[in-house]
Amino acid sequence: MLTSQEKEVLDLIIIGGGPTGMFAGFYAGMRKMSAVVIDSMPQLGGQLAALYPEKHIFDVAGFPKVTGQELVNQLERQLKAFPIAVRLEEKVLQVIKEEERLFRIVTNKEVYLGRSVIIAGGVGAFEPRRLELPGGREVPHKGVHYYINDIESFRGQDVIVLGGGDSAVDWSLMLEGVAASVSLIHRRDKFRAHEHSVDKLMKSTVNVLVSTDVVKVTGDGRLEALTVLNKPSGETQELKCDSLIVNYCFISSLGPVAEWGLDIENNSIRVDSRMETSIPGIFAAGDITTYPGKLKLIAVGLGEAPTAVNNAKVYTDPTAKLSPGHSSHMKF
Q: 224, 246, 268 — which closes off a domain?
């Protein structure tokens, strides 16, 4: 017998409450679709809220810069313009296609029925790549950070940042006016960060060391210094360090998503130009997707969300228009 939860068939089930999922929920409201956003985290915002609440984001149109939490707050405010249900701390275990335009979504708490599905699960389950010294021993010292939730906690400290991507470069620049000193150590000779950010870095007071590895950590339980090796010269030097911020990217896993019968490539879901997966009626958007020329940027995910929603609308209602026109023509 169906439960009361199962009896309601929603137009759209959105799996993932990060920026892409939140904007998909808002846009579903624009298309007058009944929808629910489901996320395993205790709050909306995905990685932005969990890992980068105080980090500046530069790739969202209309914001010269905005912190991760500020962007999440604005997206949540936007989402509340429509009666879109939000279910937090629920992990989606199964997505089952019962028939055309009817999907059963099983979580660790409930069972939902929907006419279409959008998977906006970011990079899936994730954890930071840990700093290991030669021999594979992880550094256990206090003062080693993989996330930053309060930039003020580094005020007056000697801080070292490890990494060569946008996060490492951006954190280094943001800490420049807070910490007593900032050093950025990159294992390679070229950065993966945006060129403009790298130019700012090179003009800053940040001590930049490239082609350099950490070979020793000094401190009795509490971090005191790092010994680093410049690989081209073979020379070592010791750097004073109160706090070490490791930005060696994240190890991600699709988790249960990998078992849903979708076409997966390199830990991502393959989609077509409509953001539809290999299963008709299941769409995907954001960092979890892949297609030729795919860029993993917040701005890209925010653009993919309306494409996925509009095509989900047509899937659930073949008489509907793919696009209702410019949003500036709509009234709230």
A: 246
Same domain, 80 and 94: yes
State the DSSP code for 131: P
C-beta of residue 186 within 8 angstroms of C-beta of residue 210: yes
Query: How many Å apart are CA 254 and CA 126, to the nearest integer?
Result: 9
Residue 115 sits in a domain whose CATH number is 3.50.50.60
Measured between alpha carbons, how far is 3 from 9 in angstroms, rounded to an integer? Answer: 12
| Domain with 56 in it | 4-126+250-329
The runs of H, that is alpha helices, within the chain are 4-7, 19-30, 46-51, 68-79, 166-175, 195-203, 298-316
Structure tokens at 4: 């009361």
pTM listed for this prediction: 0.73
* Tens digits of residue pLDDT in 202-252: 999 999 999 999 998 888 778 899 999 999 999 999 999 999 999 887 666
